[in-house]
Specification:
With 211 residues, the chain is mostly beta strands. The chain has two helices and 16 strands. The radius of gyration is 18 Å and the shape is globular.
Length: 211
């Protein structure tokens, strides 16, 4: 007899500093690793659909290990930004900028270090393409290329002197992740909360074949 499974959404989480929430398999504990193009962190969350906050995520390790995580509640703190609340202690998950093991569960309130940006597999793919050198070119309608971006704290991509908030551009990340090599698509980028989007031609380079 077949049993119906509840549909779920898989999410990964970027911290305030551009690192990813991860699983430290040596300690079987929560950790953090720098964002790396094309790499999936060893920790993700399974979220019941339809995705509504607050909700109880199921944290899942890519390498199965026995230690259980405390029960957490995922709460929205701002559009496309969340915090992990620990009901048992009344505290929050916190990611500090001091190294790979600097994750704790004891923040008394939710501020910047407690804030995370949830990302789907499509968003991870799009951000990876943007940050991988010589892979994606962004050009405005006047034909000017944006400089190569860097990932900054506060969930920002910096293009020269311009800052693009990732949390305002989740759809754009997904669209960029879907562009095939050699193809170009018109993508709307939102630079500021109260500003209309600006359209850019996004081209994905064709990989060169080295003999």
């Amino acid at each position: 007899m077949m049993t119906e499974t509840t549909p779920t959404l898989r999410l990964w989480f970027m911290d305030w500093f551009g690192w990813m929430l991860d699983h430290n398999s040596l300690k079987d504990a929560l950790g953090r690793t720098p964002f790396q193009e094309g790499r999936f962190p060893g920790l993700s969350a399974s979220i019941p659909l339809p995705f509504q906050l607050p909700c109880r995520p199921t944290l899942e390790k890519r390498i199965s290990m026995p230690r259980t995580f405390p029960e957490m509640e995922l709460r929205e703190i701002a559009p496309n930004r969340v915090v992990f609340f620990i009901p048992q202690s009344g505290t929050y998950l916190r990611s500090s900028p001091t190294g790979p093991n600097s994750i704790d569960l004891w923040a008394p309130e939710a501020k910047e270090w407690e804030t995370f940006f949830p990302m789907t597999v499509e968003m991870l793919r799009g951000l990876s393409l943007i940050l991988k050198p010589n892979t994606v070119k962004l050009q405005d309608d006047a034909g000017h290329d944006l400089p190569a971006p860097t990932l900054q704290q506060g969930f920002m991509l910096q293009f020269g002197d311009r800052h693009l908030p990732l949390f305002l551009n989740t759809t754009a990340l997904i669209q960029i992740g879907q562009i095939m090599p050699g193809a170009t698509a018109k993508v709307a980028l939102t630079w500021e909360d109260d500003a209309p989007p600006a359209y850019f031609n996004v081209s994905r380079e064709t990989p060169s074949n080295h003999q």
